[in-house]
Amino acid sequence: MKVYEIRETKGIESLQVAEREEPSPGYGEAKVKMKAASLNYRDLSVARGAYGRGVSLPLIPLSDGAGEVVELGPGVTRWAVGDRVAGIFMQKWICGGVDDAKAKSALGGAIDGVLAEYVVFNQEGLVRIPDHLSFEEAATLPCAGVTAWHGLNGIKPGDSVLVQGTGGVSIFALQFALIAGAQVVATSSSDAKLARVREMGASRTINYKTTPDWEKAAAGVDYVIEVGGAGTLAKSMKAVRMGGTISLIGVLTGNTGEVNPTPLLMKTIRLQGIYVGSRDMFEAMNRAIALRGMHPIIDRVFPFPEAREAYKYLESGAHFGKVVIKF
Known about the structure:
Helices cover 27% and strands 26% of the residues. The chain is built from eleven helices and 15 strands. The chain has helices spanning 41-48, 100-103, 135-138, 141-151, 168-179, 191-200, 214-217, 233-239, 262-266, 279-292, 307-316; strands spanning 2-6, 15-19, 29-38, 64-72, 84-87, 118-122, 126-128, 160-164, 183-188, 204-207, 221-226, 240-248, 270-273, 298-303, 322-326. The strands form three sheets. Strands 3, 4, 5, 6, 7, 14 and 15 form a seven-stranded mixed β-sheet that branches. The protein has a six-stranded parallel β-sheet with strand order 10-9-8-11-12-13. The protein has a two-stranded antiparallel sheet with strand order 1-2. Helix 8 links the parallel strand 11 and strand 12 (240-248). The chain is globular and about 55 Å long.
């Protein structure tokens, strides 16, 4: 079968097509014919050798994919041939909190991912995808969708949420916040992208290039979905209300820099790191998506032979929502 491998972490050019033996499911395992996969910023970090979570090479990349069950090993009770499924980000994080053992089961990082024609999963590491979604749409859910869902845990009608940029997690957070009856404030450097988020339902938009003091314009929000990291965290602490929550899910501006922790204390801010989520969270999110008939936002779909081009497009930052690879 055809797969993509990262054999050396020297950037996108490290991504190579390879042939591997088609896998067979063992006890308790299901074989899935992959139909689509999606990219996250994490995948760029893995290719560059900047991820730092025990990546072993050669590695089949990508954590997010969806497909159809085509073969079952003995002892499988959760699935039948023909079921439409997606793999969970950490194959061993079923419920409860995360720990080192669960983190070491992350697809496309700690273990081989889903950029392959066939993948064998433990039956516990799969979820059923909502019936109304295409495989391409479902492939966007495992990392970006669950991360946004987890980051908004506890949100209630009338709350306000600040989302930074228009990448996958931020757009999912906007959609989930609106489903919950919350108001959304969105930032971007592109007026065209801000117009699109207003069309989706954002209450306020801020161009952070023309309004560098965007934290003042956003002041008083209940939640911040923080994707910038060290470069934006100080501003997020000024934007969030006293007693509000900042969900740190990304480091797009880098991972070095000084942050004054005093506002955390003086404003009693809850700062939480979000490293995706459990199968339980994924299944709860899917129930909400199905109930509301929500569709993930896909910017572009690339064919399997153009996986490198998909990586480059994500790297460009031109995308709005998710970048998908179709098998």
